[in-house]
Amino acid sequence: LAKTTQPISMDSYEGQEVNITCSHNNIATNDYITWYQQFPSQGPRFIIQGYKTKVTNEVASLFIPADRKSSTLSLPRVSLSDTAVYYCLVGLGWGTNAGKSTFGDGTTLTVKP
Amino acid sequence: EPEVTQTPSHQVTQMGQEVILRCVPISNHLYFYWYRQILGQKVEFLVSFYNNEISEKSEIFDDQFSVERPDGSNFTLKIRSTKLEDSAMYFCASSEGWGLLTDTQYFGPGTRLTVL
After folding, report:
1. Nearest residue on chain A to B44, judged by CA atoms?
2. Which of A63, B81, B95, B99 has the highest local Cβ count within 10 Å?
3. Are the C-beta atoms of residues B91 and B35 closer than 8 Å to each other?
4. Shortest Cα distance from B24 to chain A (angstroms)?
5. Which of A30, A32, A42 is closest, CB to CB, to B109?
6. Which of helix, strand or coil describes residue B40?
7. Cβ of A94 and B105 within 8 Å?
């Protein structure tokens, strides 16, 4: 399974764009990259998933370079409510390796007023 | 939007007692999962379930744990004899498929289990 590395924490201010980068140097050919968000005392929530290039939805964008050894989650114009832990997961669809994969430490994003 | 529900939201039990945590996955989902998160720690995978049997389980999921889909809507996690270290938030999740694009997992709000 591809190991992922993310910054432990990031601070931002309301209205700013936040970019969280995840390194996954040993990503396999069929692996997808998925990001989840977790608020305190809540279950993780799917944000976005991609394989290559750029994916955008109503919440975020995911940028994946050609070599796919990293990915960047971009949150436009964050608000205080975006304060959460953000997890990057890499696998053949996350559930397929569910028995061996787990959430890493994630990145704790703190948005300040 | 459909969602995964869990009951109870908080369960307090005495060490050695059996507990059953309940989940109602999203109705058209076929794959079900349990995770736990000890306070301040990572979310840990426990077990996945498909077609009425366990697909994968982690080292945490020992003989004290069992899962069941007793009817067409509920998915339960039973802990036979609870220990203090079982105190955690337990999350249920479900997904539509096991494939590349359809295995996004939807998590419930969790059950906080406190073992005294």
Report:
1. A102
2. B95
3. yes
4. 14
5. A42
6. coil
7. yes
Residue A2 is predicted with a pLDDT of 65
pLDDT digits (tens, 9 = 90+) for B55-67: 888 889 999 999 9
Instruction: Indicate the residue of A34, A102, A106 with minimum beta-carbon distance to B45.
Output: A102
Choose between B98 and B43: higher pLDDT: B43
Give the residue from chain A lying closest to B56, CA to CA: A99
Q: CB under 8 Å to A15, separation ≥6 — which residues?
A: A77, A78, A79
For residue B8, cis peptide bond before it (omega within 30 degrees of 0) = yes
Measured between CB atoms, which of B43, B57, B98 is closest to A44?
B43
**Mean pLDDT computed over B15-31:** 95
Q: What is the mean pLDDT of residues B19-28?
A: 95
Rounded to 10 degrees, what is the CA torsion of A87, A89, A95, A98? -90
* Residue the block writes with tokens 């058209």: B28
Which three-class secondary structure state does DSSP give residue A68? coil
> What is the per-residue pLDDT for B103?
64
- The neighbour count for residue B59, using CB atoms within 10 Å, is 8
- Please tell me the distance from the alpha carbon of residue A28 to that of residue B72, in angstroms, as a whole number: 36
